[in-house]
Amino acid sequence: MSIFTSSLPDELLSRLSDYSKKLGLPKNKLLENALNIYLDHLKRSEYISSYRNSKEDKDILSMAEEGMESYLNQLEDETR
Fold this sequence. Notes:
Blueprint: H1 10-23, H2 27-54, H3 58-79
């Protein structure tokens, strides 16, 4: 594990300390959990943005439709 040093505004550090005590978690674990949640949120936002951008791309829509048709055909074959 690597060591990371940073500075935080006093109010934010105070809130972090309060929640650390309430939850019985060390501050570094609380920060680690919060950062993981935030980074996952950013990743989802990237996916949403890419899907929104691709809705205008005719080639991507065509590939998606072809893939869905193939998937539905596989489902039909399995149910026979």
